[in-house]
Amino acid sequence: MDHRPRLLITLGDVAGIGPEVVAKAWVDLLDICGPVVVGDVDWLRRATKFAPQRLDVVSINEVNRTPYAPHIIPCLQATTTNLAGVETGAVHALAGRAAYDFLCAAIDATRAGQADGIVTMPLNKEGLHAAGLFYPGHTEILAERTGVKDFGMMLYAPATPERPHAIGVVHVTLHMRLREVFDHITTEAVLEKIRLLDRVMAKLRDGPHPRPLSQRERGEMPRLVVAALNPHASDGGIFGDEEARIIAPAVARARREGVNVVGPLPCDTLFVQAAKGKFDGVVAMVHDQGHIALKLLTGLAAVNVTLGLPIVRTSVAHGTAYDIAGKGVADPQSLLEAARVAAALARL
To answer: Is the pTM above the cut of 0.85?
Structure first.
């Protein structure tokens, strides 16, 4: 019996590097999970020329009745959109529509018990909007289609021999204009993200790259820290009052609930401490506050994990990379990392 988790790999925006990355990663993916591609058969076949070995793409009708072989990629044709006119490396409404269709098909199949989780290749927000689909990104589509209200986007970097401390970063605000951020940072929003991060890091702190835990770690809850919004955590109110008025009360409530969390602390120093192993998880206030720091620390090892869903979903930590699409130079490492984390979550 095959005990590998069945993971659905959505192809994302076909004009980007998604198809190439899937083809390059295929044989290694089989060591991690039972992968099935949800996408477009023709575009995936085109991409197999970039794989290091011969691959045959086989069209399938059901994702849960798929045998695995190193030279065969099973692909569920998940859109009726004609993608023949899409140009590699350019925004196109048809590619945006198809990427949405791929994701919805994967969500529905996973919710129906046909798969154990989803790993998404990148879509393009401009392509979505050009297709009349006004979502900020994957996360919001996933939340809407699964009917959840409390959800979060976490970047997660598993522990490795070179970097022995796993780090998870969840974001209070995501894809929005900076001028709108202040209206969305509330005590309830910060508290919700602390709770989500605490739950997932209790399961995933050492993730798909386990290491022996010290005696201290074995008896310890995840160690969380909440980032300040203003420089120097406002320096006692000199640079704003959001820390005292909004963030600190959320931290206090979480601590009363039993969460091991501190903050708000200045963002420029807390990531240094997290990188050294003082904290397992960080609650960042804005998208770039968390993304830039973690990607500088971990590069392609960072994995996007959606918290609060009734299904497992991870994603690569890069975009469509139109500038290199079709050139055969895309790196598949982020997809392999995302699959490892999804497989680990699916087993929990």
So the answer is: yes
Q: Are both 155 and 300 inside the same structural domain?
A: yes
Q: In this structure, what are the phi and psi dihedrals at residue 264, rounded to the nearest 5 degrees?
A: -75, 140
Point out which residues pair with 152 in neighbouring strands: 307
Q: Are β-strands 72-77 and 34-39 bridged in parallel, bridged antiparallel, or unpaired?
A: parallel
290: Cβ contacts below 8 Å, ≥ 6 apart: 155, 169, 170, 171, 227, 282, 284
Per DSSP (E only), the strands in the chain are 6-10, 34-39, 56-60, 72-77, 117-120, 152-157, 167-171, 224-227, 261-265, 281-284, 303-307, 313-315
What CATH number corresponds to the domain at position 223? 3.40.718.10
Dihedrals phi, psi of 119, to nearest 5 degrees? -120, 125
End-to-end CA distance of the chain: 19
At 110-156, the pLDDT tens digits run 999 999 999 999 999 999 999 999 998 899 999 999 999 989 899 99
Residue 264: is the preceding peptide bond cis (ω within 30°)?
yes
pLDDT in tens, 152-167: 899 998 887 777 888 9
Please report which helix (H) or strand (E) contains residue 306, including its range: strand 303-307
Q: Do residue 34 and residue 138 come from a single domain?
A: yes
Write out the residue range of the structural domain in which residue 127 sits: 1-147+309-348
| CA distance linking residue 235 with residue 230, whole number of Å | 9
Residue given tokens 């083809």 in the structure block = 23
177 and 295 in a common domain: yes
Distance of alpha carbon 348 from alpha carbon 344, whole angstroms = 7
Cβ-proximal residues to 316 (8 Å cutoff; 6+ apart), any chain: 21, 119, 120, 121, 122, 303, 304, 334, 335, 337, 338
- Tokens representing 83? 């993608």
Cross-strand pairs, 37: 9, 75
Quick check: 174 and 139 in contact, CB under 8 A? yes
**Residue 35: beta bridge partners?**
7
